[in-house]
Amino acid sequence: MTSKSGPIYEVTFFIDRDVAEACDLWLEDHVRASLREPGIVDCNSFSIADDDDGRARRVCLHVLESDAALDAFLDGRGTDIDTELVARFPQQAYSQGRVLREDQSPDLVPGASPDCLNCGTKLRGQYCGNCGQRSRSRLISLWELISDAFGDLFEIDSRLWQTLIPLLIRPGRLTHDYLQGRRARYMPPFRMYLVLSLLFFVVAFFDPREELGLLFEPQPEVTSEEDISEAVQEEQEILDDLAEGGIISGIESQDDVDIDTDNFRMDFDISGDDDDSECNIDASDLEDLPKWLARRVTVERMQRICERTQLDDGRALVDNLLDNIPAALIVLLPLMAFVLKVLYPLSKRYYVEHLLFFVHFHAFFFLILSLQILFARLAALLRIPEELAILTLVITSFYVPVYLFVSMRRVYGQGRTVTFLKYVVLFIAYLLGFFATMFGALAIAAFSI
């Protein structure tokens, strides 16, 4: 139920008995003057019981039409009450004020603290003017807990949507507004980057049947004997062709081919010299490495990495690489910010402002990749024509470099020609930095298996 009246500013006066009559006359003048103030709907005063020290008490209620009128009153005439009272009745009277509201909302806690429970600031409404926390002291329902957790996701005017929409369709807008001081309406840049990067890796690499295999029943692969026979015949034909061409040797008879029909696995017993193994590392290949790297990249270590990679067909290497990619991209951010610092030496921007540019660009990159992956899966599910799906993905892929160019123009404000030249340099530097960080991620992944 919505309240029909505005806030009430209540002032309680504590008055010595010998000046009570004079104070009543002053209070009448104050009520008449307050009624002439804009934004005050009503004002009246009345007496209440004396306090424990025998002082007379008077209460004056100022009914205001809105919160804006309350703020104007407190900044204006409301601040003069104590001043006038002390001037007329020094050390004989003092006052205390508070804001009253008619609020029948069921989520308000009776007897809530008049001070913010987070920072201690005196409350002048349902939200603290210092830290922004709501005046309620506790959560009273499961629905409120869920609303606090997912409210931003479903509220159209929330900071989430006010951030993602311009991030996607207005290149450079977030960076420009942030540098101009317009920040409260948007999500913090690094928080947005982490959320979108997490979203991308979940969308791209999370396989529920693999990660949550316990929730799915196993699906046995059924292979008929006819299929096995055909596959064996095809394999034999391939082996014969390779043997005739001199590409392989050592298969003299069918006994050299071991076929497991249960799991459909074929093992070939090909005689040869073990020294021809793919994991033979030549020490001469490592001679040109720097000393600090040669102490770590030894022949034995490279041999062990090669053997372990062959054992599981590189699955452990790929898993470690995927785990290292987020860290590699974070390392790429300050490198690219340094390139921007070099490209714009006269921009008078701090290094962290160039870093902010790439934080927003990488956040956009994660967002567009996530949308592309989701669209590709949805297109396959809805059986959208493959040509149309591919065309859409190509167009959105070309949007990424265009986005970077437009962002540079909007944030740094230079002409098309100069921006394009710097764009080419930045693009080349970005490719070099990307491959360098990916190679580093691959090296770390290899030495951790």
Layout of helices and strands, plus pairs?
Blueprint: E1 8-15, H1 20-35, E2 40-48, E3 56-64, H2 67-75, H3 77-88, E4 93-100, H4 142-154, H5 159-169, H6 173-179, H7 189-205, H8 208-211, H9 225-244, E5 257-260, E6 265-268, H10 291-294, H11 299-311, H12 315-343, H13 351-382, H14 386-412, H15 416-446
Antiparallel strand pairs: 1-3, 1-4, 2-3, 5-6
Helix pairs in contact: 7-13, 12-13, 12-15, 13-14, 14-15
Structure, explained:
- With 449 residues, this protein is of the alpha+beta class.
- It folds into three domains: 93 residues, Alpha-Beta Plaits, CATH 3.30.70; 204 residues, no CATH class; 65 residues, no CATH class.
- Helix content is 55%, strand content 9%.
- It has 15 helices and six strands.
- Strands 2-3-1-4 form a four-stranded antiparallel sheet.
- Helix 13 runs antiparallel to helix 14.
- The longest helix is centred in the last third of the chain and has 32 residues.
